[in-house]
User: Fold this.
Amino acid sequence: MKILKDLLELQKENVISQETATSIIKYYESQKGNTTNRLILVFGILGAILIGLGLILILAHNWDELPRLLKTSLAFIPLIISQGLCLYGLLKKQDNAVWVESSSTLLFFTIGASIALVAQIYNIPGNTASFLFTWMILSLPVIYLLRSSITAILFVSGITYYACHTGYWNYPSEGKIEYWALFAMVLPHYYLLYKNKPKSNFMTILNWLIPISVIITLGTIGRSSEYILAIAYFSLFGLLYLIGDSEFFSSQSARINGYKSLGATGMISLLLIYSFDEFWEHLRRRDLIFSEIVATPEFVASIIISILALVLFIIQIKKESVKNIKPLSPLFLIFIMVFILGLFSNLSVVIINLIVFSLGILTIKEGAKLDNLRILNHGLLLITILVVCRFFDTDLSFILRGALFVFVGIGFFATNYWMLKKRKSNG
Amino acid sequence: MVSRKLIVALFIITAISQLAVPAKMIFDREDIMAEGKDYKFKTEPIDPSDPFRGKYITLRFEEDQFEVQDLEIWERGEPIYLELESDDNGFSKIKSVAKSKPLNSGDFLKAMVRYAHGTNSEKLTIQFPFDRYYMEESKAFAAEQAYVDALNDTSQITYALVAIKDGESVLKDVLINGVPIKEIAKARAENSK
Assistant:
């Protein structure tokens, strides 16, 4: 290892004591042990996934020649074996993460396989929704009894697929509450993971998977007054952003912090979409009757999510001074006001454009303050996208649009040049 | 800390319920097959494959529409109960359609409304709960061919043999002129070798 050579040299030159050198070496060796363990864990899980999927395929061959009784007994064998492996893990290998995670992965797949196989033997038609639901319910206890994070990950993926199947791909859509109930049941595991192993890879995966699952599923809650969903989604992205900006997550790298990335990207994408007049035009044209909307799940969801975001926002204000509040944090509140305004007036689209523009400017300012070219160029990029969007709005004259482009182009050059020059003079 | 014994006990309960679900499915179907009455439904066909459950042929039934008076009250995906009767050749026909279980008749089947929006006729299209017949992978294609040939040849009669008990059904076999499709597919697959 390169560091070992460096350490020897540093020790020789009396930069560090021998004690420090030994403890540094020890630290690196312990880390090395961790990576091997992690590799074994990854391969164990991958192996179990492959075996599980392979079993499903082999069983799917549908062995005609075998008598029905034998086929039905065969349906249970993989399930019983993986249950046995899990039980052995519980009794003898509780601290062996590789054993526990691999055997519960196998169990997860064999539960699905045995149900699917019985369905095949008896020609039960494909009711995918109830099949997935049963599968997930039966897998849920495995998450807690074996403390298996991989099962939690597979479970969240499975219930998201279930929600899409029932909510988007099927008519009439059903099973709306079921997803949220199942989703709530996985959260305690997530919390325990956060308490016990906040830096583990499983936590990182769930930090992305959980918000993604909610983002995908929120659209299934209702279709009768989908305009209200705009608020639900905006507040959801606001909420995710605020979670990502909380004390625990804000100290983490962007790779781990799925909430902040997804929240910020989501809000900005929505703002760009709503910077076109189309949405607002439709909104104005529809006679939204308040008493009818109040009872819709979209409205209820919007209220709940907005309140949750508001609570987090208030907590954040109390902790930090108002000056330190990031511009994206209160954005969901502004959006709600703009939306309500949009019901009566055509000013909303102008305000949205101004918001995006100011976000761009604020980001550029922050980039300049922190001497960070990446942030600065993000701000410029945002303004560029806004200008490109306006380019498609044909009601602006060519001269105006052209001027905008030239202006932003000059802005790119000028700011980058100015920043580099500042760096040079400082360095 | 929850005690180890409790966790193991809970795991055993979980494992039993994981076994119980497929076991219950098997038990129910076996019960229908043993105690239910056999019905024959004339069919029409197709071969997609389901990644979870292998190869199957999709069955379409001749008698899958039923004329109703007030189309608006029927909703897509809604469960319905079909009262069945036999025609002169012993094939099942739909006698009536109802939203609730018929009380006085034993000959009924639980099914689903596939479509209810007829443009030119006031008809319900019915989704039967037995529209898939699973085949061994190697035989599915031959079976499909046999099925298509039989359908093009009007002299051949293809039908599904279904056991029904209390409205619940199990597809037992698919037959062409009284010969199980598995046997025809096997013979075809061997001939083509």
